[in-house]
Write the structure tokens for this entry.
Amino acid sequence: MDFPAEPFRIKVVEPLKKTNRAEREALILRAGLNVFNLPADGIYVDLLTDSGTSAMSDNQWAGLMLGDESYAGSRNYQNFENSIKELFGFKHIIPTHQGRSAEHLLFSILLDQKKIVPNNIHFDTTRANVLHQGAKPVDLVIDEGLDPNHSHLFKGNMDLEKLEDLITSAGPDRIPVVMMTVTNNSGGGQPVSMENIRQVSEITRRHNIRFFLDACRFAENCYFIKEREEGYGSKSIREIAKELFSYADGCTMSAKKDGLVNIGGFLAMNDASLAGDVSNLLILVEGFPTYGGLAGRDLEAIARGLEEVVDEDYLAFRIGQVRYLADLLKKAGVPLLQPTGGHAVYLNAREFLPHIPQSQFPAQALTVALYRHAGIRAVEVGSLMFGEKDKDTGEERYPELEMVRLAIPRRVYTSMHMKYVAESIVHLYQERKSIKGLRLIYEAPILRHFTAKLEDID
Ligand code: F0G
């Protein structure tokens, strides 16, 4: 079979509106050529993010009806706690309303201005939460992880030498936690090998430093380990996950990804004293420790989602669907980040649109063109998101990569939708010379990509 057949059938449908070119043109102009400003019902296939956009199963929806909304001691918290303890193996489980809140709580307790946090690559919110405490985030991914054309199978791995050097030069006291993001979202959804996790764990234990995973996409990472790493081919995803977490002291989690839910997250850890400090802060900002900013029914949906996400048929379809889209594009010569990651396909906009200089936002130009052409919403990961003005000279500095991320929501779109996306992009690629650059006409002082307004350059 040359396409991934869905391991589910459809019980409830959500109609999608198809728009025509003139309607999309009006919508995108009104949105200031920024897809974040589009009304979602003007979009046919929405690939803005895989976060909080999953379709829940009938079993999860049934679980919502069993929500126990008691302020304290809800039975759904018990299910949530049991499900996480069983799969992740950590002793203390603290619910939060989403991933960044788990990061904020952990870093509020652990960090101050003198501290440093290493990670393979910090996701934006993780970086922002480290900076918010006055501490310094440092990215230590292997060099191959920064080369869009390198096909290393575990491009999310941390460079162990760089980690040892940092610990030696800064001193272990300044590093209260080493983080590792699985899969490495900012590096293209690339996996980390079990061997690398084991080695990082060995280094952190030797220096008496905590080791936490940013576990948003842990199941996808485990599937890659099963597929690619020697010795794991005949193990179950659950066994692989248990081993993976056994090397860490805790994790932050956005259940909006591999929890298969629309909202929720948690912090898990073995250290009772740290868990006590976090829980006290949790009561102040999120809620009582048996709900942490969520409803009882949300906890139930997460408990059930975590059971479903480690199912191998599901994961084979999930990873297979992302790969299917990438393969259709590759066959037509569309330049992509290599190899295909777990949750998204990344178009290499610099190679797609070599005639547009970075000062004219090629990845954003491609994102806008894709919406205009086919009603598909992707997200720019390039100079609009990461470009910044030099504080001294005022000159614009550009990031190395200009990417357009096509993030695939879980269990939402069919393989036929993927075919539609691929054919639309291939068509656009054939007409790429007609795509023009963009000019920025409004930018906010921070995180400008969310609210920026742009115009076409004629
Ligand atoms: N860590 C990683 C690796 C993430 O990808 C995200 C979110 C978070 C933490 C924060 O979790 O959104 O629940 O607060 N990533 C989304 C994305 C937003 O589109 O990649 P959150």
Summary: The first strand starts at residue 45 and ends at 46. The pocket of F0G is lined by residues 49, 51, 98-100, 123, 125-126, 181, 185, 214, 216, 254, 256, 265 (CB under 6 Å). The mean pLDDT is 96.
